[in-house]
Amino acid sequence: MTLVEARDLARDYRFGADDVHALRGVTFDIEEGDYVAIVGPSGCGKSTLLNLLGAIDRPTRGSVTIRGQAVGEMRDREATLFRLRNIGFVFQRFYLMPTLTARENVELPMAEAGLKSAERAARARELLAYVGLSHRERHRPTELSGGEQQRVAIARSLANRPAILLADEPTGELDAKTGAEIIELFGQLNRDGTTIIVVTHDEELAGAARRKIHMRDGRIVDE
Amino acid sequence: MVVQLAWASLRRHATRTLLAILGVAVAAAMLLDMVMMSTGLRESFRELLMSRGFQLRIAPRGTLPFDTDATITGVSGIVATLRMNPDIVTISPVLGSTIHVPIGDRTFTSATLGADPAIQGDYELLSGRDPIARDEIAVNDDFIRATGVRIGDSMRVATGYDPQLRTYSDSRTMVITGRVRFLYGAANQLATAMNLPTVQEMARLPDNASLFMIKVRDDVDVEEARAWIEAEVPRVSALSIATALEQVDQRLSYFRQLAFILGTVSLFVGFLLVTTLITVSVNERVGEITVMRALGVSKLHIVQQIVLEGVVITLSGAIAGLGLGLVTARYLNSILASFPGLPVAIDFFLFQPKAAWMSLGLLSLSGIAAGIYPAFRAASLPIATTLREEAIA
Questions:
Q1: Taking burial as the number of CB atoms within 10 A of a residue's CB, which of A186, B70, B341, B368 is the most buried?
Q2: A84·B299 Cβ contact <8 A
Q3: Which residues of B122-141 are buried (b: 16+ CB within 10 A; e: fewer)?
Q4: What is the pLDDT at residue B65?
């Protein structure tokens, strides 16, 4: 079943007097349960594409449809709610809230979604156990290693049972061994039914995906 | 979670938060003092005027009570005229003068008031009894401190000093019958009280008074009674509490203006302090805030969190400032109590719950306003662009 439909997707930016064409008409479909790696050189438009898929940016032209909803046409409030319920984000720099514990970080999207305190605490524990961090739930990000922080970020991204998990260079800040653990965790997640789209330079991470989209100069050049 | 995040954010830089609260407390104390001063002085004066229930004062035409040495002649005639009005229930003529009391090798000069002790509204008896006979006198604590006299002592009391002949027009021995506190007395002022006929006799003003204090029935319109008096006795000015307060307002307008300006400055300083702190704090957390937006946290919740931080700082500062303001006001009041020409019973800084709530309310509003702009700005940042810039940074 098709989960994501991108049609003639383009995104231009204006830098001073110049127009930068970050995406120049990209079309593809992603099926439910898929594991897609978007690869290509820096500046080829990978992250821009991920932002459009995650409803944190709007296309200059074309359309993105996720679960039948036209993401690119949503107003800010609609897009915020859509992200909360349908998208899980994993960032290169983890971006955990430094003042919250690991469990509270995982609870954050659930609190926003209106889950009751006991319910979200139970789910956060379950997710931390899933990523192998049950023993670290009361630690703050500064007390965790990079790999542990990324695991908490992955647990957080799964909090509201999103339709799709978007990861931007999730192993970019990690050493090879920790990166490999995260790649393994992504594989596990996908085997358990999570649809994953990952933007990466990491050959190993890209190799773990079922499907690769190669980009260059804002276009898909190979699949 | 909004409350939790706001609290965590404030605790993250505890020293900075504490300093900001202290800054707001100082501004709040200043604001409270200024509000207390702008409303308190007038209210205190009103309470003083009303303290003995006299709603009207009669002074020589065009003057205020004891503003000049002018007196009203024909006291008995005026009393007879005033008694014709059934609305007037009490008439207390008062004559002010100066007495000289030689004790040892010093002569003490003191103000004296002559009034009927049974109905007067100028002093309260602290101990002993009222001066009733023509050789009796009551004195205040400043007089006792300066001269060393006690109740029951006798002393020579003279009036009408002629500086050229160095003689007095009247001198007699008087017995101190009581210790009194003058309601309108200034700080460190030596003051005494006698029966009205005694002062009239000693001052050689047998049918004069400096002012009349008048009580009218409670169900009567005081302004109507005032107008009636001025119509019946054209050579006097009748002052109600309201007209007296108008005069006070005019004379003390500088205080109110000063209080208003300093109060506004305090409020503005508090506002700027909180805005600066919140702006700095938000700028430090742009990445976090943008990530929260990316995760699906609504703009409203971001704004609520940041505004809450401002409100917590402002309210904590305001509560601390309330205590600080009261302590400061008490200290300043003790300094200003010796302000020349003003009764010592006047409070420059009168605490009124309404004034405190007003200060707290104004500060809370400024706290909310202080947080809104940085909060809204942070919540409205473009997510994708900000994340990219954060990653580059």
A1: A186
A2: no
A3: bbebeebebbeeeebbbbbe
A4: 75
